[in-house]
Automatic annotation (TrEMBL):
The chain crosses the membrane at residues 29-52, 73-91, 136-154. It is found in: Membrane. This is Peroxisomal membrane protein 2. One of its GO terms (cellular component) is peroxisomal membrane. Keywords: Membrane, Transmembrane, Transmembrane helix. Belongs to the peroxisomal membrane protein PXMP2/4 family. It is a multi-pass membrane protein. InterPro entries: Mpv17_PMP22 (IPR007248).
């Protein structure tokens, strides 16, 4: 989506791509945009995950705080790790690297990026899954995702250099 592509461009302006002579690596921008196509991959995954989570852990007035914590823990530990794995693999492949390079990139970057994800997204996801109406959750997430895309792209580039 445009959010991920814009985030990638901003990240390249913050930390220039040394392998590309400091120029914008448009293939990387396209890879971020391709993976995050809201109609194809990330949008539906996130949308249907929220629907599933709402059915699995419904909000009840008498246990609202505990349910809210369960929802965030569920999101952070059930959804985030495989989604990040998929993201790292797909983006590396879409950047033109092969399967072996994608696996190597995952081994190198997964844990640092997952820890950053937990540090940055947890507060926003607590707000999102507990206070934002279901129909606005992906939109709310996209606002945070712009910043997150910049952070992930910068981290991937720093680990690669």
């Amino acid at each position: 989506s445009s959010v991920s592509a814009i985030g990638n461009i901003i990240s390249q302006l913050i930390v220039p791509n040394q392998q590309n002579g400091g120029k914008i690596a448009w293939r990387s921008v396209a890879a971020y945009a391709s993976f995050a196509l809201d109609f194809a991959v990330s949008g539906p995954l996130i949308h249907y995950f929220y629907i599933w989570m709402d059915k699995l852990i419904p909000k009840k007035k008498e246990s609202a705080t505990f349910d809210g914590i369960k929802r965030v823990v569920f999101d952070r530990f059930i959804f985030a790790p495989p989604f990040i794995l998929l993201f790292l693999y797909a983006v590396t492949m879409l950047e033109g690297s092969g399967h072996e390079a994608a696996i190597a990139k995952i081994k190198e970057t997964f844990w640092p990026i997952l820890k950053m994800n937990w540090q940055i997204w947890t507060v926003f996801q607590f707000i999102n899954v507990n206070y934002v109406p279901l129909k606005y959750r992906v939109l709310f997430g996209n606002a945070v995702a712009l910043v997150w895309s910049v952070i992930v792209a910068v981290k991937r580039r720093q680990l690669a250099q």
